[in-house]
Design goal:
Elements (H helix, E strand, L loop, with lengths): L3 H24 L6 H11 L1 H4 L13 H6 L12 H7 L17 H12 L35 H13 L9 H12 L6 H4 L5 H9 L2 H14 L7
């Protein structure tokens, strides 16, 4: 029987050799993973040739855009402008010196293998949208509201209620509205005298917003978030 310690040594040696062979096979595969190519381009190229900025009117975030920009020739990495620029070590290299370190030899090799393999990519590869197209940067446009309800919020709520088959409750009495207002703004119920307040709604709201209790109520939420305590 083979002694345990030499057995473990040779088993570990064999496992290490197998893992090294697997890594080497992956690194020299004739069919590189396009996800790795995308990740490399995103890290090195998208800041100047992506959705946000397009130097020389060039984008590299999809295969079709690379073909349109005539920087790759599928099957011919040696003749592709992309390889020429990333291999350049002069000030004209890509990425430029001020934008990051040059590509390493294994990264360039990955791009070469991908192009020589036909620059394959998934069909209907989605085009990333420019940040300026995000809804937060678009000018808001007023759209017609459903129904004839006076308040726009009520109109939208009523449309949703109708979709769900819900019926609107009748308007609450003034005393109930005042009670809700006090609980929302200062966290305390109104007294009997406050319930019978006959002033305008705006006057009551302004008074509650200006009261110290309003600040105390809403500061509590913020203090709970950052876990305020008195022990320190």
């Amino acid at each position: 029987m083979l002694p345990l310690r030499p057995f473990l040594f040779f088993a570990t040696l064999g496992l290490g050799a197998a893992c090294s062979a697997a890594r080497a096979a992956k690194g020299t595969s004739d069919h590189p993973d396009y996800a790795e190519v995308k990740a490399l381009l995103a890290a090195k190229c998208y800041s100047c040739h992506g959705a946000l900025k397009q130097k020389a009117k060039l984008r590299l975030d999809t295969r079709e855009l690379m073909l349109k920009g005539e920087v790759i020739i599928p099957g011919k990495a040696a003749e592709s402008l992309l390889i020429e620029r990333v291999e350049d070590r002069s000030e004209d290299r890509m990425p430029p010196p001020e934008d990051g370190a040059p590509l390493k030899s294994d990264e360039i090799a990955l791009l070469r293998r991908w192009i020589d393999d036909g620059a394959k990519a998934p069909a209907n590869e989605p085009l990333p949208k420019a940040p300026r197209e995000h809804w937060a940067f678009r000018k808001p446009n007023r759209v017609p509201l459903p129904g004839n309800t006076g308040n726009p919020i009520d109109a939208l709520l009523e449309k949703r209620r109708a979709t769900l088959g819900l019926k609107t409750q009748s308007p609450a009495e003034r005393t109930i509205l005042i009670r809700r207002l006090y609980l929302d703004l200062i966290g305390l119920p109104p007294t009997r005298e406050q319930l019978d307040d006959t002033r305008s709604w705006e006057s009551i709201v302004d008074e509650l917003l200006g009261s110290p209790q309003h600040g105390e109520r809403w500061a509590r939420h913020w203090m709970d978030v950052w876990r305020y305590t008195d022990w320190y």
